[in-house]
Amino acid sequence: MVRKALLSLLALTPVVVLAHYAFGVGGTLIFVLSALALTPLAYVIGEATEHVAEHTGPGIGGFLNASLGNAPELIIALFAIHEGLPDVVRGSITGSVASTLLLVLGCAWIAGGDGRFDARSLQTQAFLIIGATALFLVPSIPSWHGDPNRHGLFLLTLPVAGALLLVYLVQTIRSLRAHADAHVAEAREDAWSMKRGIVILCLATLGTALVSESLVGSIDEFTKSFGLSEFFVAVVIVAIVGNAAEHGGAIVVARRGHAHLAAEIAISSATQVAVFVAPVIALLSVFVGDGLALSFRPIEIVALAGAALIVAIAVRDGRAVRREGVALVAAYVALAVAFGFTGDR
C-alpha cells in the first residue's frame, strides 16, 4: 500500500521538471510539489541500491547503501551552496540528524511497541555523533562573532572534514574486510538484474538533481509566503523531506516487529549524515560555491549533541518502549518550536 502510493508520486517528477524548466513556474507551488516529488525518488534510490547489492555481496552492498542512501540530501545541499544559501545547508544537516534520532526513532518505537536491540552498537554510534559535534566546535565557536561564512572558517573546516571522513573510511574498510572472504549469495528470484538496478539508480539520481534545483530555487518565495525563516524551513521541512524514505522505512520495519532493525536504520542514518555527508558537502562545496564552513550556531550544536545524548540514554537498556518513543517525539517537537523562534542570521 505504502509502496504503491510512493511510486504513484513519481508522476510528479516530470510535472515539476516541466513546470520549472519549461514554463518558469516558481514560488510556493513548486516548493510543495518538489518536496512531494523528492520522497518517492529517495525511495527508488534506496530500493535500486538494495537490488544492486543483491549482486555484490553484503560488504559492497552495505557500502552502497551507506553512500547512496543519502544522495538526495547531498544533492539538495550542493544546489543550496550554489545558490548562496549556506545557512540552509547547515540547517538541513542539523535537522536531518535531530529528526532522524528523535522523530523517526520515536515514531518507530511508538508504532512497533516493545522490542530488543543491540544497545552497545547503537550507543557507540550516538557517541560518534557527539564526537563529530565536538569537532564542529572548531569552526563554529569563532563563527559566533563576525561573518560565519568567512574563508578562514572554511580553512578550519578542512581538517575537521578530513578527520570525520577518516573515521568513516576506517569503519567502511573494516566492514569490507570483514566481508572480503564471504561468499556472494545467489540473488533472490525477484531481484532486479544488475543492469536494470544501475539504470534505475542513475535515472532516479538525475530526477533528484533536477527536482532538488527547483526546490532550492523556490525556498526564498516559500519562506516569504508563510512568514518563516529560511533556517526553520531548512532545519525542519527540507531535513524531513531529504530523509523521507528512510523515515518511512524505519517506521514500517518497526510496525512489522523488527525493533532492532528500525533502531539501526534511524541511528545509522543520523551517524552517516554527521560523519560522512557533512564533511563531503564541505569538501565538494569548493566546486559549486565559495566553500562551506561547518560553522553551526549554538542552537544547532545543542540540538546535535542533545539529540545524540538523549538517544544514547534511551537505548542504554537495549529495549524499545512506547513511552520512551513518545518522549523522543516530544523532545523533537520542543526542538522544532525552538527552531521556529530562531530567525536567520
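(the above was protein one; protein two follows)
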Amino acid sequence: MDSPGITLPKEEPPPPAPPSPGITLVPPPPTPGASPDSPDANALPGSGDDTAEPPADAGPFPEHLRRQMNSVRRTGPNDTSTLIAALAPLGDYGVSPEEATLIGFGRFPVAGAARYSHDWWFPRFGPGWRLHMGTDIFAAMGTPVRAPSDGRVRITNGGLGGLAVYVVGPDGTFWYLAHLSGIAEGLSEGQAVTVGQVVGFVGDSGNARGGSPHVHAEFHPRGGGAVDPKAILDGMLEEARLQAPDLVKRYADAAAAGESIPAPPPPTVAPGPGRFEAPRAALLYATAMSPSGGALALAEAEATRVAGSLDWTVFQTQGLAANVPSTVTEARVRTWLDPLTPPALVGAISSD
C-alpha cells in the first residue's frame, strides 16, 4: 500500500508456476543464537531489502531519495523464457528441462523460469525510508540458485535477508543472494564454488516472508558499495543465449559419435540437525531430475515430518543424538508450530 502523497513503482509480477506441483513452506528457522530481527554481526554488507508495507505514519518519501531514484535510466523487464527456448533442442538428446537450466544458464543465478525488472533504488521501508539495493529475481519456490562467479561462500541466516549466501571472489567482489529457502547439500562455510554451482534454493525468508518467492541479488565490486546489477544480469542471459547453439551442437556431435554426456546431479538441500529445513518444492524439483533418488528424498522428508508431528519424543531424541541443546530444538519446534497456534494459546504457553 502506498503512503499518502507518493505512488511507489510497482514490482514485476512473479512468473507463472511451473507445470510440476510445488509446495510453499514456512521459511527455515534462524541459525541458533542469531536474532531474526538483526543481521549477523560478522556478515559482509548486504541490504537484503525487500518490499515492506509502510505504516500510516511513515510520512512522505524523502525528496532526496526521490531524486536519487529518478536519476536511474531504467531498462525494460527481462526473463529467462528466450534462453529456455534456446536450450529446448537439448531435449532431443535426453536432456531434461531441469538439467538444461543447470548446464546452459551460464552465470545467471536462477536456474529456471524467472523474471525481474529494473527495480534498483525503488522505495523501500523498514526501518525508515530507504532504497532497494539490488534486483529481485522472481521464480517458483525451490528453484535452484547458482553461483554467478567463482569464489568462496559465506552463509548467514537472520535479519532482512533471511537465509542468504555470499559468493566472494579473490579481490573481495561478491554477490549477495538473499531470501533463500534452503542451502545446497554439501555446501559449507568458506567452501570454494565455481560459476553455475548450485548454492541454494529460491524462497521467501527474512522480510520477504509470505510474499512471492524470489532471490534478492546484490552485487558489490571489490567489496565496496552495491552497484546496479540489472545490466549485468541482462548480460548474463544474453551470454548464455549466444552460447546455447554451441552447447546443443556439442550434444548433437556426441550423439552422432555414439557417445553420451553425463547429466549433472540433481541439486538437493542440506540435511541434518543444525542445517535448514529442505523445501519440499526443491525435493520435487529433484524428483523431476532423478525419479528414483528425488522421490526417495521426498519420501524420507515426509516420513520425518509425519514422525515428528506424531511423537514429540522424536525431537528430543534427534536433539540428543546430534548433541543439539534442548533450547535450540524447542526454538525450532516453536518456529514451525507458532503460525498454526491460536494467539491466546501462544500467550499461555509462553507464560509457562
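Reviewer note on protein two: The chain has two domains: 7-275, 280-350.
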